[in-house]
Specification:
Blueprint lengths: L2 H4 L51 H10 L16
Keywords: Hydrolase
InterPro entries: Ureohydrolase_dom_sf
GO molecular function: proclavaminate amidinohydrolase activity
Length: about 80
């Protein structure tokens, strides 16, 4: 049995909740404050160091900008929770 069959990870429908609102999470999945609640955890840090301008957009600004491009951040064709 995979995680995908045990749990439901709904994503907000476009237009239902603005993409730039709320806590920015990976693939817009629910936030889990306790590691004990997780089966799989993905840890990462958005980095804005690859710019010709001074850095400083911060992780929040990087995620907010990325959320405005829905086609650029869609999940892959395979279900990530079937790993």
């Amino acid at each position: 049995m995979t995680i995908a069959t045990e749990k439901n990870y709904p994503q907000p429908q476009d237009g239902e909740i603005p993409r730039f609102s709320g806590l920015p999470t990976f693939f817009r999945l629910p936030f889990a404050p306790q590691a004990a609640e997780l089966d799989i955890g993905i840890v990462g840090v958005p980095w804005d160091g690859g710019t010709t301008k001074p850095c400083g957009n911060s992780p929040r600004a990087t995620r907010a900008t990325q959320c405005l491009k829905p086609g650029a951040s869609d999940p892959p064709d395979y279900p990530p929770f079937s790993l």
